[in-house]
Write a structure and sequence with these properties.
single chain; 61% helix; 106 residues; mainly alpha; 3 helices; elongated
Length: 106
């Protein structure tokens, strides 16, 4: 797989992640206390909001890592583990393009 193909894969993943972030932002709007829902339903809505908040933070972190990986695609250290300096297998980069570590170091 060439670096251009990896770059294209990263760009696709960035677009997917940005769409997920938009969805999560809509789902994490504050729950108004004057909503006419029952106590149990309100507790469930608050619980769902906290789960969506965590998913939003995870997606935002993934986006930052993808953008970092996109900057590194042309560099000689792209695909090199940040810890052991070994080569990251291309299969791992295909599955997790924002990966900075090989499987052993992750």
């Amino acid at each position: 797989m060439t670096q251009e193909e990896v770059k294209s894969l990263i760009l696709q993943e960035i677009e997917k992640t940005q769409n997920k972030i938009s969805e999560y932002q809509e789902m994490t709007n504050p729950i108004a206390p004057d909503d006419a829902i029952g106590r149990i339903s309100r507790m469930d809505a608050i619980n769902n909001k906290s789960i969506n908040d965590a998913a939003l933070r995870k997606a935002e972190t993934k986006l930052k890592n993808l953008e970092y990986a996109l900057e590194k695609v042309g560099n000689s250290d792209f695909g090199i583990c940040a810890k052991c300096k070994g080569e990251i297998p291309i299969q791992r980069l295909i599955l997790v393009p924002q990966s900075r570590f090989c499987v052993n170091c992750a």
